[in-house]
Amino acid sequence: MRIAMIGSGYVGLVSGACLADFGHEVTCVDSNAEKIAALKRNEIPIYEPGLDQLVKDNATAARMFFSTDLAAAVGNSDVVFIAVGTPSRRGDGHADLSYVYAVAREVALALKGFTVVATKSTVPLGTGDEVERIIREINPAADVAVVSNPEFLREGSAIGDFKKPDRIVIGLSDDRARAVMTEVYRPLYLNQAPLLFTARRSAELIKYAANAFLALKISFINEIADLCEVTGVDVQEVSRGIGLDNRIGSKFLHAGPGYGGSCFPKDSLALVKTAQDLGSPLRLVETTVAINDQRKRGMARKVIAACGGNVRGKTVAILGLTFKPNTDDMREAPSLSIIQALQDQGAIVRAYDPAGMAAARSLLNDVHFSENAYDAAAGAHALVVVTEWDAFRALDFNRLGKAMATRILVDLRNVYRSQDVAGLGFAYFSIGRPASPLEPKQAPK
Ligand code: NAD
Ligand code: UGA
Is 385 domain-assigned? Predict the structure, then answer.
């Protein structure tokens, strides 16, 4: 199959590379000329484990190409995937579909022969209808089928998720398109990944409902964690105890500082807005959005309380800036609201992240960016684990303790256990577990 992937960001580049790896011929298109020039030089614009090698291998094998010429790529393809961004529309929280519709207009003029246009971007119910309307209005003679093919990969494990998905959802009503999409995913189908064919609008709603449900699950365990904190119960025991019930499932039950990222926050909000507009409000999702917003802001209060109620003039070291490990993506990262709130209360912030420093520099002011965890801890009155990178899972607490002004560890990802660190003189605070507020030791002079 010849495939044009329009939009070469986190989703487009990973999907393009994986489809090329299956043997298809894929042209990744982007309107960002710098991004395409970098890709042609084998430079990967994002951090995603394994992606650099996958892109390099497939480009070298002449299965993966990069271009800014959308028309040429579309005219030469059996399938055109739309994988551009659908951010929150400024002001009202609806999905901003301007990039999707702009691509639809360009695609319409470039179609040659029967072509499937598959929307991989996360788009609200009815967007496929509008994409089809745009294309038919601009090019009434076009032989085209517009399908919905939402993507469920996660950043940080994107290649594995794409290649071993739980399911592939394809919304369509055209038999020729069904045959084409079956061929596109045939290598996965052979791996037993179910192809779920649905109506186009169902596919669009499945994507939002899945993200909203996962967001809701996280907010649920986060609220249970709050209850655990006032009752002295350990939320990890509760997570395990309920997660072993197959009807509930153990995934997405890790309590933390609130979900972030480029998708859960914007998608749950967009779903809320769509449902409100259609007169069928989703009150559970509305509440989830509110709980998560409050939680991210509230995490700074936890740090301040751990520091004795005041951080003015104190130094706080932040470990982990990205919204989750194994990505450089800073979109809606909890670290952003935590750092802002700490600075508002007069704290001096030092920070380190294994992959997110470049993106963080453009988003954060007055932060001292450090070389590593120990450099960040130098002179700090508290150390806060915000993102659970592997590099923070086996820290040398003796070394940290010597570097810090006071030994306070606030672990917002429950990476440690209090017994791991309390013996080393650290006051330890985590999420939904009994605190061990030892009098923090002064570091030896
Ligand atoms: P992104 O911002 O990383 O990438 C989008 C790319 O599209 C950018 O490189 C941009 O330059 C390009 N683009 C914009 N307009 C264009 C045009 N007219 N022609 C060609 N290229 C154009 O976004 P992303 O994170 O890859 O997300 C893309 C979509 O996939 C969104 O709808 C998102 O909700 C959805 N999604 C994302 C993830 C994820 O993990 N990031 C997972 C599943 C679904
Ligand atoms: C999420 C979904 O998991 C993907 O299926 C979906 O394709 C994607 O959104 C999307 O639509 O873009 P992603 O945002 O990359 O993927 O990462 P997740 O692993 O889902 O994490 C999202 C946020 O939830 C992170 O901030 C993470 O720390 C948090 N989280 C996750 C928790 O706090 N607890 C958990 O148990 C799981």
Answer: yes
Q: In the chain, what is the straight-line distance between the N-terminal and C-terminal CA atoms, in Å? A: 67
Residue nearest ligand 2's atom 3 by CA: 154
Residue 257 domain flag? yes
Greater pLDDT, 441 or 218:
218
Per-residue confidence (pLDDT) for residue 189, from 0 to 100: 77
pTM: 0.96
Report the interhelical angle of 10-21 vs 51-60 (nearest 10°).
Answer: 50
Q: How many domains does the chain have?
A: 3
What is the rounded average pLDDT of the residues 75-97? 96
324 located within any domain: yes
**Residue 302 belongs to domain spanning:** 293-429
Pocket of ligand 1 (CB under 6 A): 6-12, 29-32, 35, 70, 83-86, 99, 102-103, 121-122, 151, 153, 155, 262-263
Q: Whose CA is nearest to atom 17 of ligand 2?
A: 154
Domain end position, chosen among 292, 323, 355:
292
Rounded to the nearest 10 degrees, what angle do helices 127-138 and 200-231 cross at?
Answer: 150
282, 356: one domain: no
Q: CB count, 10 Å around CB of 206?
A: 18
| Poorest-pLDDT segment among 89-98, 100-109, 323-332, 417-426 | 417-426
| 63-73 confidence digits (pLDDT tens) | 999 999 999 99
- Check pLDDT > 80 for residue 28: yes
CA 254 to each of CA 217, 257, 270, 421: distance values in angstroms, whole numbers, following the listed order: 9, 10, 24, 21
Mean pLDDT of 334-357: 97
